[in-house]
Amino acid sequence: MKRADIEKRTEELVMPIIDSGGYEFWDAEYVKEGSDYYLRVYVDKEGGITIDDCVTISRALEEKLDAEDFIKEAYILEVSSPGLTRKLKKDRDFERSLGRLVYLKLYKKENEVKEYTGKLEAFDKDSITISPDITFSRDNVSSIRLEFEE
Question: What torsion do the CA atoms of 26, 36, 5, 1 make, to the nearest 10 degrees?
Answer without folding.
Answer: -170
